[in-house]
From TrEMBL:
InterPro entries xrefs: MMPL_dom (IPR004869), Mycobact_MmpL (IPR050545), SSD (IPR000731)
Taxonomic lineage: Bacteria, Bacillati, Actinomycetota, Actinomycetes, Kitasatosporales
Pfam families in UniProt: MMPL
Membrane-topology descriptor: Multi-pass membrane protein
Name of this chain's protein: MMPL family transporter
UniProt key word Lipid biosynthesis: no
Organism listed in the record: Streptomyces milbemycinicus
SSD domain sequence ranges: 249-374
Length: 798
């Protein structure tokens, strides 16, 4: 301790004993820790002393956040899609109106093999005429009804001649479209009942959007049904008592509610979509449970060591409280990396994720210690039979201690085996193909609308959701009404016929404000290679040839031609295929910047936290191995189609474009929680004078068990997404669950102790004794501020 240390000159360094050097080096680290943890300890200390006020203040914050979201006036911010599809969206936004939804009804015999051609089938023609008549008799519901029996009807007959297509758009104002869609759908079902031998399969803009929305709602109801009971059961097993298990649930619930309220306020300036809410809930539960577990575990250890509740919470704030703050700040800064994509979709997601982590972090150093102070020893009451006593005792993990003993005896063998295993798991990721899922890829064909879209795609490629070519005047808003533009649009029919199947019928045009929207079905309405090649054909060859050099919307050219269309028009291609294409390209282009930012930031933060470049570099390598293995499993399962029966999905040959980048940022932040927690335990013992191997075994035994418990909760929470219907959620659930499981077991339990053992003294290099003496003086000043700090003999374990 400080009062036992004697004043020495730096020239006496060689003559000092090893024990003195260890003691003084530990004092330096203690001084630095006090400097970093002083604010956390003061805030937590205030909360402990004023527990009622701290608890009331926290719940007041939640109420204010919710009320603020309810009373905040004004419209919310809209997102802008990337690339050319984003330009098209901006033009339509400026019109303050949008193209009316188009619906399609496939007309074909239920038995295709023996069915006569459409033109020779009286039954198909009667059903088609009945459908057209019924639709036109629904007053003010639909407009622009087209069928194979009308003008240019051959364009609405499939290439094999066996199927017909009836198309129509919703009439009336935008707020009436939903009602009119319901009426039109009812009319289609009525006609279907009158012609049972004919298949009438409806799919289009509104029907596909509605089935996706209904699928999401159903998925979240299913997730709520499974996730809450599962989380409660695991928390009871992990914490060992009803009261202790309720604490992380309370912190996570209030954190998520407060974040939702604050996010609704920020939504007036930042675009927020439904995916943001899902991620806020997911991350809020993750960090709420993690932080509570770290805090409660340390408080139990300190009480078991003989400290009273107040002293135990003071030490917990200085140690585990610091870990929570460092981990929270690291995760928040890692999440900011998503902004480098420049995507509006990620702005709301980043804002929500940063908010929920920040709110959870603040709650962990305010209301959490206040609750623990108010409960005192009662936090361990209402124990669960059989597991309660063992879980509330805060003992070291015997299993992880045994593993650590084996690893430190042969670190090269164990570490090399673990690295080899992770590299093998990561191998499939080398062939990862980024591709967003179309509706027919995402949802099961058991859904009638999805089945209709698949059948329609086979008969009329691209018809369920065609590309939208938005044409507008640059200088003269009336330029789109010129005869030259009408002639150019009409020429698309001939160009589509000569495109070799890249572009298809039916092509239609709709005036939207002062813009013209032309629907052009592509080879596929999905996001596969055929769809992307067709999109490139439309953008780079067909439209420039039809509309002239002045129409190069993608390049923004402002040239003029002699073809009857002057430089006053421009165009851009949008639609589901175009959006996915532009989005994936933006993700691919910006991913290196996100990776570089997160890796560089993580390295700097770890160097600052542990004062060891070797440890920082080792930590990054371990995280990359863990994430790489998760990428490999994700690719092997979903892109290659393994386990499709068990997980109830059909592989479409790709991985959702945004998921790998999202996983990287989220997992890098979450893994830092586990990494800093275990590594800090090892460092404490090392700086207290223990040999490297003993420090590793003790640190892993005391920290890995907590990490494993947190990982089990997170894995269970993520695994719930596997039971959802959309393949995107299944991918996210499997990817995150596998990554957390690998990180908390193989990486933190085997690779980390092996790496620290191999690094030896390089892991935590001691400063010169002169620096140590300077640190001792700083420590003395801090100890004078808090006289109880003079009783600290060694660095407590976070």
């Amino acid at each position: 301790m400080l009062r036992k240390s004697k004043s020495r000159d730096s020239t006496d360094v060689p003559g000092h004993s090893r024990a003195a050097l260890v003691e003084q080096a530990a004092l330096v680290e203690q001084a630095a820790l006090v400097e970093q943890a002083a604010l956390v300890e003061r805030v937590a200390g205030w909360s402990v002393r004023h527990r009622a006020l701290a608890i009331a203040g926290w719940f007041a914050l939640v109420v204010v956040a919710v009320l603020a979201s309810a009373v905040m006036p004004g419209d919310t911010a809209n997102s802008t899609d990337p690339g050319e599809s984003g330009r098209a969206g901006q033009v339509l936004d400026a019109q303050r109106k949008y193209p009316p939804p188009q619906e399609n009804v496939l007309v074909q015999a239920r038995t295709q093999d023996a069915a006569p051609p459409f033109a020779e089938s009286p039954e198909l023609r009667r059903a088609t005429q009945d459908l057209v008549t019924t639709l036109r008799r629904t007053p003010g519901t639909v407009t622009a009804v087209r069928s194979p029996l009308g003008r240019d009807g051959s364009r609405l007959v499939s290439k094999d001649g066996r199927s017909g297509l009836v198309t129509f758009t919703m009439a009336g104002a935008e707020e009436q479209w939903s009602e009119h869609y319901d009426a039109a759908t009812k009319a289609v079902k009525t006609v279907q009942a009158r012609h049972p031998q004919v298949r009438l399969a409806q799919a289009g803009d509104r029907s596909l959007s509605r089935v996706v929305d209904e699928g999401i709602k159903g998925d979240f109801k299913r997730a709520e049904f499974f996730s809450l009971p599962l989380t409660v059961v695991i928390l009871l097993v992990v914490f060992g008592s009803l009261i202790a298990a309720a604490i992380p649930l309370l912190l996570a619930a209030t954190t998520v509610v407060a974040t939702f309220g604050l996010l609704q306020v920020l939504a007036h300036w930042v675009p927020v979509n439904s995916a943001t809410s899902s991620m806020v809930l997911l991350i809020g539960v993750a960090v709420g449970v993690d932080y509570s577990l770290f805090y409660l575990r340390r408080a139990r250890e300190e009480r078991a060591a003989g400290h009273d509740v107040a002293e135990a919470l003071r030490i917990t704030a200085r140690t585990s409280g610091r870990v929570v703050v460092v981990s929270g700040l690291t995760m928040m800064l890692c999440l900011v990396g998503l902004l480098f994509t420049g995507l509006d979709n990620f702005k709301g997601l980043t804002t929500g994720a940063v908010l929920v982590v920040g709110v959870a972090m603040v709650g962990s150093v305010t209301v959490l210690p206040a609750l623990l102070a108010a409960l005192g020893h009662r936090v361990d009451k209402a124990r669960i039979p059989w597991v309660g006593r063992r879980r509330t005792a805060a003992d070291q993990s015997r299993a992880w201690a045994a593993v650590a003993h084996a690893v430190v005896r042969r670190p090269l063998v164990w570490g090399g085996s673990a690295v080899l295993a992770l590299l093998v798991l990561a191998l499939p990721a080398l062939g990862m193909r980024l591709q967003d899922a179309a509706v027919t890829d995402s949802l099961s064909r058991r859904v009638p609308t999805v089945d209709a879209a698949v059948r329609m795609q086979e008969a009329f490629p691209g018809a369920p959701s065609p590309a939208s070519v938005v044409i507008w005047g640059k200088r003269d808003p009336g330029a789109v009404d010129s005869p030259a533009v009408r002639k150019a649009v009409e020429s698309l029919h001939q160009r589509a016929a000569a495109s070799g199947g890249a572009l298809n019928e039916p092509i239609s045009a709709t005036k939207v404000g002062r813009a013209l929207v032309v629907r052009v079905p592509l080879a596929s309405f999905g996001t596969d290679d055929a769809a992307n090649r067709a999109l490139e054909t439309l953008r780079k060859r067909t439209l420039p040839a039809a509309l002239g050099e002045a129409g190069r919307a993608g390049s923004g050219a402002d040239s003029k031609t002699d073809g009857g269309i002057d430089g006053g028009i421009d165009y851009a291609v949008a639609g589901k295929t175009a959006f996915a294409y532009d989005f994936t390209n933006r993700i691919t282009d910006r991913t290196p910047y996100v990776f570089a930012f997160v890796l560089l930031l993580a390295f700097v933060l770890l160097v600052v936290a542990f004062r060891s470049p070797a440890v920082a570099l080792m930590s990054i390598v371990l995280n990359l191995l863990s994430i790489g293995a998760a990428y490999g499993v994700l690719t092997w399962v979903f892109q290659d189609g393994h386990l499709s029966s068990a997980l109830d999905f059909t592989s479409y040959g790709g991985v959702v474009g945004w998921l790998p980048l999202f996983m990287f940022v989220i997992l890098f932040g979450l893994s830092m929680d586990y990494h800093i927690f275990v590594l800090s335990r090892i460092r404490e013992r090392r700086l207290a004078g223990e040999a490297t191997r003993e420090a590793v075994v003790g640190g892993v035994a005391s920290g890995a068990g907590v990490v494993t418990s947190a990982a089990v909760i997170m894995t269970a929470a993520f695994s719930v997404f596997v039971v959802l219907s959309a393949i995107e959620y299944k991918m996210m659930g499997v990817g995150l669950a596998v990554a957390v499981l690998i990180d908390a077991t193989l990486v933190r339990g085997v690779l980390l102790p092996a790496a620290i053992t191999l690094l030896g003294r390089t892991a935590f290099p001691r400063k010169s004794l002169q620096t140590s003496l300077q640190g001792r003086d700083r420590l003395a000043r801090h100890m004078l501020v808090d006289d109880r700090a003079a009783e600290v003999d060694h660095l407590p374990a976070p």
